[in-house]
Amino acid sequence: MTRKGIIDEAMRVVLLCAGLASLSIVVLIGLFILRESLPAFHEIGVWNLLSGKEWRPGQGQFGLLPMIAGSGLVTLGAICLGLPLALCCGIFLAEIAPTWIRVVVRPSIELLAGIPSVVYGLFGLVVLVPAVRQIDYPGNAGFGLLSASIVLAVMILPTIASVSEVAIRSVPDEYRQGALALGSTRWEMIRRVVLPAARSGILSAVVLGLGRALGETIAMIMVIGNSVMMPTTMGGPLPGIFLSRARTLTGNIAVEMSYATGLHSSALFATGVVLFVLIMIVNSAARALMSRNVRGGRP
Amino acid sequence: MNRTMACLTAMALCICSLAFAEKITVAGSTTVQPLAEKLALAYESVAPGVTVEITGGGSSVGVTSVGNGSVDLGACSRDVTQAEFERFPGLEALCIARDGIAIIVGPEVSVTNLSKSQVRDIFTGDISNWSEVGGPDEAIVLVSREEGSGTRSAFENIVLADAALISGAAVLQPSNGAVVTTVSTTPYSIGYVSFGYLNESVTALSVNGVAATVENAQAARYPIVRPLLLVAAGDASPLVQGWLDFIMSPAGQSIVEAEGYLPVGPVE
Q1: Pick from A85, A210, B126, B195: CA 20 to 30 A from residue B151's CA?
Q2: Are residues B138 and B216 both part of a single domain?
């Protein structure tokens, strides 16, 4: 074998090993979490864990429904607040912004992604929580889903904005020229031609944001209140539910892990399994949607 | 062949017993753990060759571990319960320090004193408005520690008498420091922390008319004081007794005081 051939072969093996290593890390972590959670699933029961509304480890009650509801609602809130802003930001950067604005705005959005989440949490605790507390609503203490959703919306903004910008930018220029040649305005071109053509990329941007939102921990612990309760409207209209305190699945693990032993600790690993499965469902749903779009998605 | 094996086994046993002869193992309360580590460090410097190995796990784990003989000493930040004494009859508990738990409120609360039963009713959610205890007409915001925390279990033990449960609506913070920050920045809130974490940003309430001070806790006037215990199964070995004697000596108790706990004996 020639010297070049040997180098090629060696590099192939090295790269193969790197690929296999990352795969095996995922598998090993998954197996470890599953193994640690087995006693909880066995003793408490899968259904009781998923549907139980009481979480009192001291009393042997392990119900994850309040945390599942908390994670779900805060993610919903973050997407509702963050998606329009992030998407508009992406469209602006890809289609409208002149170069000199783009070179200022894009790095600042990327900077947003680099801020550690504990700093977002601190900002939420010191600025947002007192601001939300000003809303006159029974039982409102500032801590809760609204504060957490706002923090999370800002945190997922850079992910969604930059990935959707790339998706929009990758739409071929012929599409735009065609649309303009047919007499559409610039906004009609963006809305009717560019966005539909970029939708699989935009969708994957949303999913990446969802994943980030579901997994966020420390910033949530600082602003959501961590109360083990089903989010409630506290007797008011339905939007009032966002002023309710809650706890996320990630927060449940982080807040209690340091003291937990035995079944309690196992139940926290089970919380991790639920989170794992939730994120896998979100990712594979998005993957399915995206592949359908790629096949028949051209306008 | 058999003789060789026997010889090897005997040698291995010898080496093992030599290697582990001077080790004290402790498990249990995470509240006691930092204090025990300081006391162990100080003892290791005056008694060369002795090592103290400390692991956490919580008070219940500490009592169970010493009861079934897997450690030399169990650390416990509450009284040993009757049920535990019945399960492990030989247990001997030594109180190495005491720790007061203060009831704290934020700056806008005008109430300065509560009875112990009022504190209980507030934390169970039976009293939900400050006007019910002589304060303004504002909803009470509860701030508590997470399930499993030593401070929380001692608080439940002493104030809630274990029968009642802390309201699920309470804001939970994962450390003493976070409770102080939350209470000091949240109007009309109430929480509880170890004496060591009190500062000027929060007001510590009097309980049953007794101010939350170290002096009152020392004199057993302040009602929410928990013992920090080291539990042994029966008589301690000379090795373990050596460390316990050091802890109760003025040198040991000075460390207790320096760490912000109440000493239980004379200090240097």
Answers
A1: B126
A2: yes
In this structure, are B136 and B216 located in the same domain?
yes
**Contact check, Cβ <8 Å, A245/B171:** yes
d(CA B77, CA A262): 19
Domain span at residue B95 reads 20-99+227-258
Contact A229 B165 (CB under 8 A): no
Domain region containing A1: 1-34
Total domains in chain A come to: 2
At position B56, the amino acid (one-letter code) is: G
Q: Is A245 on the interface with B (CB under 8 A)?
A: yes
Q: Are residues A226 and A121 in the same domain?
A: yes
The full DSSP string for A65-120 is HHHHHHHHHHHHHHHHHHHHHHHHHHHIIIII--HHHHHHHHHHHHHHHHS-HHHH
B-contacting residues in A 268-287 (Cβ below 8 Å): none
User: pLDDT (tens digit, 9 = 90+) per residue, A96-130?
Assistant: 999 999 999 999 998 998 999 999 999 999 899 99
Do A135 and A21 sit in the same domain of this protein? no
Give a yes or no: residue A204 inside a domain. Answer: yes
- The shortest CB-CB distance from B139 to any of A139, A226, A260 is to A139
Residue B126 in this model has a pLDDT that exceeds 80:
yes
**Domain match, B36 and B108 both:** no
CB distance A255–B174 less than 8 Å?
yes
pTM of this structure: 0.78
The helix (run of H) or strand (run of E) holding residue A48 is: helix A46-51
Residue B4 pLDDT grade (very low, low, confident, very high; cuts 50, 70, 90): low
B124 chain-A contacts, CB cut-off 8 A? none
Helix residue ranges, H only, B125-249: 150-158, 176-185, 214-218, 238-248
Same domain, A225 and A279: yes
**Residue A144 within any structural domain of the chain:** yes
The ipTM, to two decimals, is 0.75
Residues B24-46 pLDDT 10s: 999 888 778 888 999 999 999 99
How many CB pairs (< 8 A) connect A and B?
Answer: 74
DSSP B39: H
